[in-house]
Amino acid sequence: MKRLYLGLALVGAVVPYIFFIAHIGAEGPGLDAMLSGMFANSMASTLTSDLLISSFVFWIWLVHSKTKRLWIFVALNLCIGLSCALPAYLYARERERASAPAP
């Protein structure tokens, strides 16, 4: 599973940026254009609100589980997105479990 999570984190980093770069190329780097696109219609608003709520829940989970280096996963979530941050967290958790001594 560790390799799968790492692969999904990489895919989760690349795919959103393909669309983000296309948006920047078409609309420019302005925050106004980005926000208006995020809430352009009811479907975009649904997906945006779902992602924002899911990200917030992920942050709560990170704090509650006392995750080491919590800031890395929050930064990934803010700079790239949940599609990268969540599998990166799962990869780090699996890696930590694999290196821990057996009880």
Q: Which short descriptors sum up this protein?
A:
103 residues, mainly alpha, 5 helices, 83% helix, elongated
Quick overview of this protein structure:
With 103 residues, the chain is mostly helical.
Q: What would your notes on this structure say?
A:
By secondary structure, the protein is mainly α. The chain has one domain (2-99). It is 83% helix and 0% strand. The relative contact order is 0.16.
The average pLDDT is: 93
Can you summarize the main beta sheet?
A: none
Based on secondary structure, the structural category is mainly alpha
Low-confidence stretches: none
> What's the tally of helices?
5
| Proportion in β-strands | under 5%
Overall number of domains? 1
Radius of gyration: 16 Å
Number of strands: 0
Give the end-to-end Cα distance, rounded to a whole number of Å.
21 Å
Order of helices and strands: HHHHH
- Indicate the percent of residues in helices: over 70%
What general outline do the C-alpha atoms trace?
elongated
